[in-house]
From TrEMBL:
Pfam families to which the protein is assigned, alphabetical: IspA
Native species: Methylobacterium hispanicum
HAMAP family: YciB
Underlying gene: yciB
Name by which UniProt lists this protein: Inner membrane-spanning protein YciB
GO CC terms: plasma membrane
Major subcellular location class: membrane
Lineage of source species: Bacteria, Pseudomonadati, Pseudomonadota, Alphaproteobacteria, Hyphomicrobiales
Length: 202
């Protein structure tokens, strides 16, 4: 009997993946920054930005799925929260919902990762297994660090949106969260090197 091999997952080109991830954020920033030039009142521009953000997020997810026939877990969860909280923002005309969205998403990721560890399941290994080959201890340590990082990012978002102006929060969301995340990811390089599986590397 002939056993058919399972086709490998297709992956997006790195630049296209980056464009699909950053595109909605860029439109969110532009909508907030330039809405007044098109006659939108200052207190309404965040609603315009939110509408653009929701539409761009749905479009980006649709393009991603059309190209590779699957969606990564974290962008999918984030996209669902964007649609739900962005929709509530527009429907109820309450900016609070879109401003707490990063808090909700990062808290969810942090709780899930740390909760998985409590049950002996380093869930980050499920998400990133195709990218890194780590020992079990390495996955546990990496998952623990990212869990704490997501909770810290959630707390930081709460501080920013509750104490700063709308424009400051938008700039923080677009130009703050991503660099902080990239810097944290790069800081994990020593851990990735230390706990790399020797059998795979060989």
């Amino acid at each position: 009997m002939q056993i058919e091999s399972v086709p490998p997952h297709r992956h997006l080109p790195p630049l296209l993946k980056l464009a699909l991830e950053m595109g909605p954020l860029v439109l969110f920033f532009l909508g907030n920054a330039y809405a007044e030039r098109f006659g939108i009142a200052a207190d309404q521009k965040l609603f315009v930005a939110t509408g653009a953000f929701v539409a761009a997020t749905v479009t980006a997810l649709a393009i991603h799925y059309a190209l590779v026939r699957r969606l990564p877990v974290m962008p999918l969860v984030s996209g669902v929260v964007v649609v739900v909280f962005g929709g509530l923002t527009l429907y109820l005309q309450d900016k609070t919902f879109i401003m707490v969205k990063p808090t909700i998403v990062n808290t969810l990721f942090g709780v899930v990762l740390l909760g998985g560890l409590a049950f002996g399941k380093p869930l980050l290994a499920v998400v990133l297994d195709s990218m890194f080959a780590l020992t079990d201890e390495g996955w546990r340590k990496l998952t623990f660090r990212w869990g704490l990082f997501f909770l810290a990012l959630a707390a930081l978002n709460e501080v920013v949106w509750r104490t700063q102006t709308e424009d400051f929060w938008v700039n923080f969301k677009v130009f703050g969260i991503m660099p902080i995340t990239v810097a944290f990811a790069l800081a994990q390089t020593p851990l990735l090197t230390r706990y790399e599986r020797k059998d795979v590397r060989a």
